[in-house]
Write a structure and sequence with these properties.
alpha+beta, 7-stranded mixed β-sheet, two-stranded antiparallel ribbon, 8 helices
Length: 216
């Protein structure tokens, strides 16, 4: 569809229906909607953190923050990489999510080293559902640490669903599972009825791991 026919209210409606936008490439300004038959989700009560990653989280190697540089995280996620020369985040989509963030319905988790943004993720929060959109890493484990902190925040905040969209072997290592469209929509409906608090969690490596261990 033409990007100028799609605004943030349309975007919110899409998520509530269980569909989400993508583009063919960074330079293609068209936006189309995806409604997968099978959906990847990360159960908040079954999230797995390896012993090595847990040590990294505890070490404080990264300074973790939330919503301090949403635009920077999206821009980094949209960059071409050697293992992913094309990206689905075109300029219209990027601008839509930045507007959604300003409305309070999209969030980022940032990981920094010596003040430099080296990893992070962003997604959309509606009711008790969080829709993970993309992540990036410029330092080993940076995006993984961001994911650990996101999950802890969702658990403490009272969320019911973490939508990972597509199943990958990388996400499977964290406990992600694939469910049918019908099961997903039922879980989505239940999660949208919740009233969580994204900001209830106070950042700390040990605190993140404690929240996850208590939920699993």
């Amino acid at each position: 569809m033409p990007h100028d026919a799609f605004d943030i209210d349309d975007l919110v409606d899409c998520y509530r229906r269980g569909v989400f936008p993508m583009a063919d490439s960074r330079e293609d300004e068209r936006v189309f909607l995806i409604d997968p038959q099978r959906r990847g989700v990360i159960p908040l009560d079954g999230f797995h953190v390896s012993a090595r990653l847990a040590r990294t989280v505890r070490s404080g190697r990264f300074q973790v923050s939330v919503d301090t540089d949403f635009a920077g995280v999206v821009e980094a996620c949209a960059e071409a990489r050697a293992d992913r020369p094309e990206t689905w985040i075109n300029r219209p989509i990027q601008h839509l999510y930045e507007r959604l963030h300003r409305s309070g319905r999209a969030h980022s988790v940032e990981c920094r080293q010596d003040g430099a943004l080296v990893g992070g993720l962003y997604g959309v929060a509606l009711g008790g559902a969080f829709f993970g959109e993309s992540m990036f890493s410029r330092a080993r484990d940076a995006s993984k640490v961001a994911l650990v902190h996101l999950v802890a925040r969702l658990i403490v905040g009272g969320y019911g669903l973490l939508d990972a969209q597509f199943m990958t072997s990388h996400l499977a290592s964290f406990g992600a599972v694939e469910i049918s469209r019908a099961v997903y929509r039922r879980k989505l409906s239940e999660a949208l009825a919740l009233a969580p608090d994204f900001y209830r969690f106070a950042e700390s490596g040990p605190g993140a791991l404690q929240a996850i261990s208590q939920a699993s």
